[in-house]
Design a protein that fits this description.
The protein has 189 residues and is α+β, with helices and mostly antiparallel strands. Helices cover 47% and strands 28% of the residues. The radius of gyration is 30 Å and the shape is elongated. Keywords: Membrane, Transmembrane, Transmembrane helix.
Length: 189
């Protein structure tokens, strides 16, 4: 009788070891699959783009962008820079600074801070109206150029609109767009 019970316990012990071994192998496989999935997700992470509106399709990869994306982001940067009031200038310029790479941040931040103080202290409001067919894109230089009319109001006095061409210089590194600078040139009639 004792032998039968011992034999039965031995069989149960072997079955338990088999189930534990299978469980261990299953958990090992699941852990490996999750690790591979996590590594894939990190290497192919998505990016959140927050322009004011999407007006067309564009292509973004880790190494390059297309003309439609440069146009969209160039228009967005100019919108933030040129359409300001004394109450929203800090917010607009703050959004611009989110796109400035660290290598250019101090100079651009200082310039925008001075401009924001001038807008607030003088009560300046500005609005930029792009001209039809007044834009150009250079994918190789990562530049967007836009011509339009800038209308300003100082206090309650409206100033005549002036025509300017703005060049937005961008950089694209590691899948992230950056604002390097915005240059203004007056258009002579």
């Amino acid at each position: 009788m004792k032998r039968g019970i011992e034999h039965e316990k031995l069989i149960q012990s072997k079955q338990l070891n088999l189930f534990l071994g299978l469980g261990f192998l299953t958990m090992l496989f699941v852990s490996a699959a999750l690790s591979i999935g996590l590594a894939y997700a990190v290497m192919h992470q998505s990016r959140t783009l927050v322009p004011p509106s999407l007006s067309g399709a564009f292509t973004v990869s880790d190494g390059q962008v297309d003309a439609a994306y440069l146009t969209l982001m160039g228009e967005y940067f100019l919108y933030l820079k040129l359409n300001v009031t004394p109450t929203n200038v800090s917010r607009q310029f703050g959004r611009l600074l989110e796109y400035v790479p660290s290598s250019h941040w101090s100079s651009i931040q200082q310039s925008l801070t001075q401009e924001a103080e001038t807008v607030k202290n003088s009560g300046i409001t500005s609005y930029f109206s792009p001209q039809p067919n007044g834009s150009a894109v250079s994918i190789t230089d990562l530049q967007y150029r836009l011509t339009g009319d800038l209308t300003k109001t100082v206090g309650s006095r409206s100033l005549p609109a002036e025509t300017y061409t703005y060049t937005v210089q961008m950089q694209y590194k590691n899948g992230v767009i950056g604002l390097v600078g915005i240059a203004k040139a007056e258009v002579k009639p």
